[in-house]
Amino acid sequence: MGEGTRAGLISVVGGESTGKSTLTTALAPRLPAIVVGEHLRDWVDTHGRVPRAAEQSALMLTQHEAERAALLRADETGYPWVVSDSGPLMTAVYSIQYYCDDSLLPRALEWAAQADVLVWCQDDFPWQPDPQRDGPDARATSQNILADIIAANPGLPVRALRGPLSARIATVLTALTGRD
């Protein structure tokens, strides 16, 4: 990274089982990037339950703060990128989906707009079971909510990713060309 250059943020979003974690892990060494893990997944592992509606805001803030801390660390250590799996926007999506609460959306959109790229993983491959996943119907609902949010906010730096991992990586790398 050149003097005065700041690390960029890639925020990865998408419904469950859309390849977010796989993509994040694959991108990190190629960029290179510091990875911010999905706080919600860690929270559920720790607490053994899904968060309640009143806990959503704190979860979203924690994810955002982890991104900010990683950006500072990247600047200090010379990493050009931070990749967030999953960006705070997903907490707002889940809050809408499970609690009919859109109060987190304005702040989530503000933060999403600050990303260099908002990578939206599509659901074009079979759903994979996982103890924390609700199923293909929940994935479809999340994707539909994201589609509505993205359509209503055309200024977001969105890149929709489809296809196998190699195609998804190529799409992200192409989107980043010229930013370095």
Helix and strand arrangement:
Layout: E1 8-13, H1 20-30, E2 33-36, H2 39-47, H3 56-77, E3 81-85, H4 89-99, H5 105-113, E4 117-121, H6 136-152, E5 158-161, H7 165-176
Parallel strand pairs: 1-3, 1-4, 2-3, 4-5
Report on the architecture of this protein.
The chain has a single domain (8-176), classed as P-loop containing nucleotide triphosphate hydrolases (Rossmann fold, 3-Layer(aba) Sandwich). It is globular and about 40 Å long. The chain starts with 7 loop residues before the first strand and ends with a helix. The chain has helices at 20-30, 39-47, 56-77, 89-99, 105-113, 136-152, 165-176; strands spanning 8-13, 33-36, 81-85, 117-121, 158-161. Strands 2-3-1-4-5 form a five-stranded parallel beta sheet, with helices on both faces. It has 180 residues and is α/β, with parallel strands linked by helices. The protein is built from seven helices and five strands. The model has no long low-confidence stretch (mean pLDDT 91).
Features:
globular; five-stranded parallel sheet; alpha/beta; Rossmann fold; 7 helices; single chain; 13% strand; 180 residues; 5 strands
